[in-house]
Amino acid sequence: VTWRQKSLTYLVLGPFAIVLAFPFYFALVTMFKTNLDLANVEHSPYVYNDLEGNFHWDFWNYATTEHVTFLFTDTNYPTWILNTVLVAAAVVGITLVFALPAGYALARLAGGWGQTAGIGIFLVYLVPPTLLFLPISRLIVEVGRLPGIDDEEGLKDSLWALILVYPSFTIPFATWLIMGFFKTIPQELEEAALVDGCSRLGALVRIVFPVSLPGILTVVIFAFSLCVNEFIYAFTLISSSEQRTISAGVPNDLIRGDVFFWQSLMAATVIPAIPLALLYNAFLDRFIKGFTGGAFR
Amino acid sequence: MKNRSGRKQGGAEVVEVTDELASPSSTLTREQLLKRGTAAAFAVAMFGGLPDKAFGFAGPHRFTQRQLSGELRIMTWAHFVPAYDQWFDNTYVKRWGEQNDVEVKVDHINNALLYSTGASEVAAQSGHDLFWFISPPSTFQKQTLPLNDIVQEVSRKLGRMTAVARKSTYNPRTRQFYGFPNDYAPDPVHYRRSYLNEVGGSLRTWEDVRRAAPRLKAAGHPMGLGMSNEIDSNMLLTSLLYCYGGFIQNEENRIVIGQGKNRKGAIEALQLMRDIFRNGMSDEVFAWTAASNNQAFLAGRLSVALNAISICRSAEQQGNQALSDDTWLASIPAGPVMRMGNEHVMGVYVIWRFARNKEAAKKFLVDTMLNYREHFVRSQYYNFPAWTGAIRGGFKTIRAMTARDTHKPKGKYTVLTTIAEKYTTNPGFPGNTTPVMDEIFNTFLIPQMFAQVAQGKMSPAEAVSAFNRTAQRLYRKWRSQGLV
Lengths: 297, 484
What we know:
The complex is a heterodimer.
Chain A: H1 3-30, H2 35-39, H3 66-73, H4 77-108, H5 113-125, H6 129-143, H7 159-165, H8 167-183, H9 187-195, H10 200-211, H11 213-229, H12 232-236, H13 246-253, E1 255-256, E2 259-260, H14 262-282, H15 284-292
Chain B: E1 2-9, E2 12-19, H1 30-47, H2 51-55, E3 71-77, H3 82-100, E4 103-109, H4 114-124, E5 130-133, H5 148-158, H6 163-169, E6 170-171, E7 176-177, E8 180-185, E9 189-192, H7 193-199, H8 206-218, E10 223-224, H9 231-243, H10 260-280, H11 292-298, E11 304-306, H12 310-317, H13 321-326, E12 327-330, E13 341-342, E14 345-351, H14 358-370, H15 373-378, E15 384-385, H16 394-403, H17 414-422, E16 424-425, H18 435-442, H19 445-454, H20 460-480
């Protein structure tokens, strides 16, 4: 690669990188701003200023950690993070258990109705949650009235509600995604394994799944991201602060009446974004393969 | 399948259980048995780690030497003063729970989500025992328990409740209090005194506001009077209609805005707001949320805003001394007909018909109102009690308390008492806050009417006619349900 090609690449990508990174920079700066610095519109929002609005290089003397501390000491933020991780882990597990065999079965089904069924499953995913949250809310209560539970509240206000509901969106999409991926794997590979003495399940576990790792990782990231971002169900099904996930807890407890706790809000969004960004980065190549894998056959 | 019904006996709940399986008419097929058995096994396997969910018991007794008499679940907003919520949750509620052997659990949500959450609980017929609304939720009244008994009990002890509280929660058609008025917040004008002095403006009347608006905008300090789908705009613009005599309904709760003097007053109010917008504000007021006027005022951009005291209290909490000292409070400007404004917040508790601990909910409401002084102080004079007698000495004491606030200018909060006593009323004045008014508020028809005129999409007369038609339709709808 010549320096000219390199420069061109950076010239094209540089502006994109700046635009995409800018919200993170803004949030990072804001989370450490003092109230007076933040509220004054004559101050630059991109740096830390003194009371007169002047920037100093020793910016740490003009910033504060009190709003980040507030987040950890005066709200249930650490609990929300933990709840989010628990729900996400469970949902990812459930999604894989159901979507992998379903996707495989649909991919290998001979005839046209395998594809039709795949499209049908995908269409389920397109039903907007705003239509479903009231009946699902009712269902979650009804689960509590099953014999042996007898709880009028059902699973409401419990993380189990989210663990049961989220797979209803993740499984259809994941099935559809993984189905496309399985179709790209030559059937001869499995047949060879069967000839060598593998069972159908053995061929699936030993041959198909390892080859499909990029697709499986994509499903994992998709399901995990949905659990982190989802708001409607997280808000409707859970009302106590200590049971909330991060997506419902942050806007609920950091917007009080008509007052926004801006710095804490920024901190609450930046903190989980950092590990997620690192995770995405680490598996970037595999995700690209996962999303494009089903496109060619 | 078991049916449970509970009744109170000597403070303890007696649960009567009838077992349908024991009924001679009930039979269970093998298929049903298998289905139910599988469901039960699944449920126990899934939720076995959560004993309270799986078996419906509350765990060990929370208070030593005492037998719990149930759980009380309360839903309320996230108060703009975090310290109030901390005191309410961790001190007041805890103490009340210990005194009454009730395990109380309080949940807080953002005020913009209260109605949708309430609707969700109604749809599921499950949720909190007590649900607090930020404005009178009269559209929910078929789902709520009439509370005449505890309203009378509190009135016997504290005297008459305020008119704003009564009109907000009483339905004269059904003769029932569908909710319990708990607190209300006066809605003062916040203004930057230096900006107003700079242009020689006054806020005594709405005509003064019209004259000052262009001068303030020219000086770089526009006014901030919202016309968007949010509660502050609703409260402000309905108040403006009162001041000009453009009443939406009359004392009998009939829609009258399209008739005679009411129509004329409404048209004048719309013309006034159009002038203020064109000469003294910017387009942003059409896209505001309830927090926008706070943010713009605290950023030093606005000269005038109508809001409860969250603006000036935030300035104090942020340590913004210059802005805080320069922010003064005043009553709503007078119009040609009257000086009258809506409450900014009318805190109404309802007890759902499906609530599980109705007795505890009622007792909590009564006890809270009888001991409201600390709520008033802890909320930094935001929560005025629905029964003024809840603070011994009534408005006289309240005035003295607000006058003692140490923030500059000294005595700035005293005017809150005047506003609360003389210039605060309910949505729907001079009538009650009917379901018609509640629906008009929650579909933001009033800000939309003003916005259409301000943006030049309709003439004031056309806007009033269109609003009147919609209001009449809503009136017929709720009348057919027997609620108005």
